[in-house]
Amino acid sequence: MKAYLILEDGHVFEGESFGYEKEVISEFVFNTSMTGYVEVLTDPSYAGQSVVMTYPLIGNYGVCLEDQESEHPYVEGFVVNELSRLGSNFRKNEDLNDYLVRNHIPGIQGIDTRALTKLLRNDGCMNGMITTHKYEVSEVIDKIKAFKVQGVVKACTCKEKYTVGTGRMKVALYDFGAKRNIANELAKRNCEVTVFPATTPASEVLEGNFDGIMLSNGPGDPAEVTDIIAEVKKLSESGMPIFAICLGHQLMALAHGFKTEKLKYGHHGANHPVKDLDTNRVYISTQNHNYVIKDDSIDPAVAKAWFRNVNDGTIEGVEYLNKNIKTVQFHPEANAGPRDTEYLFDEFIKMMEGK
To answer: Which region ranges are annotated with the description CPSase (predicted)?
Structure first.
């Protein structure tokens, strides 16, 4: 069946429908990972967004449910150049097309993803529609432009707290749309991880006799969740060791009065170089975010840049002065992606041991 991708700037791409047949409007971003599409699909940070994969062949190893970063996909739509209808892998549970059908995720294949990526890179991420109906652009353009990614943190977070692992260190993990491997990496390091809903009051966590607090990744504009920022501020004033990733990194900055801004097309992929400013060592990282901390908003008396992106110089990590708080924009839990920065979980353990 024919399918169409209509962008808010009027560009129309014609391809073939796959996955679940439905019409969806969302924000479109591109991801430069060559593998790990299951982890991309199930990363809650993509809530409200459709993902364009720059690697041309997707689905060749099927879907292994063990690789999911959450219980189900969070992307709104999926765009590929060529879909492999039959995946081949000894770990495969099902083919990608069947997986998307089962989870009600529409896709479009057979379009020029190189041209689409150039558009998003040059003009910035933009809204679009995936549909099997042949519209005149004028019929839907206003509706497409009106779309906004809103309320996604509270839509992604867990409804009740739960525990992962057992161990001597007790960690409270705020779930703003947490990837599953964050808790798993802590559990591997002899931690008992209690995962809390995003709206949990700081007082409940601070009274829980934890050794440290982790703030997770998540979707959307960090400045939108003002009620959560207020609770993060209380956490930051508690003296507890805190390590934050991605959205958590941004929320901690906002809690200290710094500002965030939207990137032109974001960082989405498993091949982004980041530099540790203390050691000058460069690591390859997994990233998925549209927002960053504004460089000139950081108060040098309060915090300093810890990591920077080698490609564009944006802030990728912050160390807070006179506080036991460190945050990073990238994903040290690394699924999918290189494991270069997994050592940061070990650093968090040391922070808790030395509190």
So the answer is: 1-169
Does the annotation list 217 as a binding residue? Answer: no
Q: Report which residue type is found at 227.
A: D
Catalytic residue (one of 8, 246, 267, 289) = 246
pLDDT-derived band at 354, boundaries 50, 70, 90: confident
Amino acid at residue number 18:
F
| 3-class SS letters over 127-187 | EEEEECCCCCHHHHHHHHHHCCCCCHHHHHCCCCCEEECCCCEEEEEEECCCCHHHHHHHH
Active site residue 331: yes
Question: Which tens digit of pLDDT belongs to each residue from 268-305?
Answer: 999 999 999 999 999 999 999 999 999 999 999 999 99
For residue range 230-243, list pLDDT tens digits in order: 999 999 999 999 99
H helix intervals, the chain: 37-41, 96-102, 113-123, 137-146, 152-156, 180-188, 202-206, 226-236, 247-255, 343-353
pLDDT at 198 over 70: yes
The torsion region of residue 180 among left (phi > 0), alpha (psi -120 to 50) and beta comes to alpha
Q: Is 220 annotated as a binding residue?
A: yes
Is 246 part of the annotated catalytic residue set? Answer: yes
Per-residue pLDDT, 337: 87
What's the confidence (pLDDT) of residue 355? 57
How far apart CA 346 and CA 333 sit, in angstroms, is 12
Q: What is the pTM of this model?
A: 0.96
CA–CA distance, 255 with 114 (Å, rounded to integer): 39
pLDDT, the chain, mean: 97
Asked about 104 being catalytic, the answer comes back as no
Burial 56-69 (b: 16+ CB within 10 A, else e): eebbbbbbeeebbb
Please indicate if the annotation marks 103 as binding a ligand: no
pLDDT tens track for 314-348: 999 999 999 999 999 999 998 888 999 999 999 99
Round to whole Å and give the CA distance between 227 and 250.
14
DSSP annotation of 341 reads: T
Residue 151 is labelled as binding a ligand: no
Residues 75, 271, 97, CA angle at the centre, nearest 5°?
Answer: 35
Measured at the CA of 267, the angle between CA 64 and CA 95, to 5 degrees, comes to 20
